[in-house]
Design a protein that fits this description.
The longest helix is centred in the first third of the chain and has 12 residues. Helix 3 crosses helix 4. Helices cover about 35% and strands about 10% of the residues. Among the domains are: about 60 residues, Classic Zinc Finger (Double Stranded RNA Binding Domain, 2-Layer Sandwich), CATH 3.30.160.60; about 45 residues, no CATH class. The chain is an alpha+beta fold and about 160 residues long. It has a two-stranded antiparallel sheet. The chain has a two-stranded antiparallel ribbon with strand order 3-4. The radius of gyration is 18 Å and the shape is globular. InterPro entries: Znf_C2H2_sf, Znf_C2H2_type. Keywords: Metal-binding, Repeat, Zinc, Zinc-finger. This is Zinc finger protein 317-like. One of its GO terms (biological process) is regulation of DNA-templated transcription.
Length: about 160
């Protein structure tokens, strides 16, 4: 299959001409072909291709704005964490129940999964995957991103001059 925009979009769909600069976007797109909908609503029978679609559904159909708070408990110590990403990052640094095989390289351990890093900015970006927090907004189209680097890529590839 020809690769349109091969230099800008290195991830290409195997079934159609869709291409993107993001492996996550491609994974979500492929679900449109496979029919996989791994994100299920707890309030009704609807299922969704992406977590973002589920979050929008929960807000609009069920008036659920605080649904993320249920997942904000540390899997290691059980503490319920505040909804602030920076406070969660601090917890990921100081929780004594988290496994840290290498204290230098594993300065931060994710409260929800096995992700480990030395960098505070990396753990903050990673935590946003779990919380759904997208503080970076494109001024041209309203696209929201969890990281500044993804917003820069979006602007570069979608709104190129």
């Amino acid at each position: 299959m020809p690769r349109p925009n091969a230099f800008r979009n290195k991830f290409v769909c195997f079934q159609c001409t869709y291409s993107t600069y993001s492996s996550t976007h491609l994974k979500d797109h492929v679900r449109t072909h496979t029919g996989e909908k791994p994100y299920k609503c707890d309030f009704c029978t609807r299922e969704f291709i992406t977590g973002t679609h589920l979050r929008k559904h929960l807000k609009s159909a069920h008036n659920q704005y605080n649904f993320v708070l249920e997942s904000l408990s540390c899997r290691y110590c059980g503490n319920v964490l505040p909804p602030d990403v920076l406070e969660i990052a601090t917890h990921c640094q100081v929780c004594h129940y988290m496994p840290r095989p290498d204290l230098f390289r594993n300065k931060y351990v994710c409260y929800q999964c096995t992700y480990k890093t030395y960098s505070r900015s990396h753990i903050v970006d990673h935590i946003r995957i779990h919380t759904g927090d997208k503080p970076y907004k494109c001024q041209q189209c309203g696209y929201l991103s969890s990281t500044g680097s993804n917003l820069k890529k979006h602007i570069k590839y979608v709104h190129r001059s």
